[in-house]
């Protein structure tokens, strides 16, 4: 069977500080089951995830060979983590009607290769988007890279109201029982959500004029572990408050994704905070979720169990729209207008 589909294509790799909604062209094309190769499926897109890293995938100044994945080039389809419904299949592991968690294109219908299919959905499909790469990013970043334990007394999480940040906070408090979980977010409403729903003992609004003083007052005994989702000035402040042999998990840098090559300005860390890394023997480690691919089943099992036990509350911000509005999700994400995991539910 053949399907007519609309699909978003990248016009050309982008620079800093642009309106990302104008970076794509919407085309109409045909996809046919006759084109399926062994192991592939033809699927209808159900959910599309919006994630900060996507901004890096389309940036023109990626240094060749230095990004963890192949950047998306001019005239190529935009990609995302998502959920799709199998319509036609040449993959023995998946049958028609199955919901699969996969890398999908910004499209209504498309062919998905076997290497881009991660697992079959085993629960609410929107939960799979949240528990999938997002939940596992929190899981592996906190437990494997950060080596967090109940012995840690203070953990600070930036972009704590983001999908990843909120899960980090809840694992830290509700699973590990860490005494002081401090979340940083960009509005009073988000801070209220963090203390109400995400297990934070303290939530700080980084836009407050007294944020620096509030941050110092909240960390009188310094920080065991800083889970960094933003980079920039917040990270600079955290490095000045680390304990001896404290750990910094570098998960993301949303504050600078849109100005990677900006000249001047404070987009990095200061000399003073870097000196503290040396003086206090601070361990700083970045990671990519796929380095833990062989452990995905264990992580998903733990995350699902904690959700069923009420230890994790999945915070989802779902936009129901058709394919023509999908790029607006990326814009919403970078404006910080979402609460929790930002997902487009596609009306086809």
UniProtKB/TrEMBL annotation:
Protein origin, superkingdom: Eukaryota
Keyword Metal-binding appears in the UniProt entry: no
Record key words, sorted: Oxidoreductase
Pfam families xrefs: ADH_N_2 (PF16884), ADH_zinc_N (PF00107)
Record carries keyword Membrane: no
Enoyl reductase (ER) domain mapped to chain residues: 19-344
GO molecular function, one term: oxidoreductase activity, acting on the CH-CH group of donors, NAD or NADP as acceptor
Protein known as: Enoyl reductase (ER) domain-containing protein
Protein species of origin: Orbilia ellipsospora
